[in-house]
Amino acid sequence: SFAFLTKLPDVRGYLVISDGAVLKSDGELANKESMVNPILKMIACQSAMPDGRLSNLSIHFSEYMITVSRTGKHVFVVKRGLTAA
């Protein structure tokens, strides 16, 4: 179960990817299979770097951010709103 993802602060949606396929999606990222290949390509680029490790990758936009985390065979993509300062 990936219900813990809905409890993240300001979560707008998420994707859970395993073996190149979406296992679960919800919110603004529901049914966004078109994001899988670009995300996996970014992870592959990071894997080619000297240390070859990726724990978290954050992509910031003006109103939201997307965080990519890999653990074991799962890749978690979470879209979160940015709070105004």
UniProtKB/TrEMBL annotation:
Q: Where in the cell is it found?
A: Lysosome
Q: Which GO terms describe its biological process?
A: cellular response to amino acid stimulus; positive regulation of TOR signaling
First-listed, main subcellular location of the protein, grouped into a coarse class: other
Swiss-Prot/TrEMBL keywords: Lysosome
- What InterPro entries does the entry give? LAMTOR4
Entry's Gene Ontology cellular component terms: lysosome; Ragulator complex
UniProt GO MF annotations: guanyl-nucleotide exchange factor activity
Keyword Nucleotide-binding recorded: no
What family, per the record? Belongs to the LAMTOR4 family.
- The name under which this protein is listed is Late endosomal/lysosomal adaptor and MAPK and MTOR activator 4
User: What species is this protein from?
Assistant: Pristionchus fissidentatus
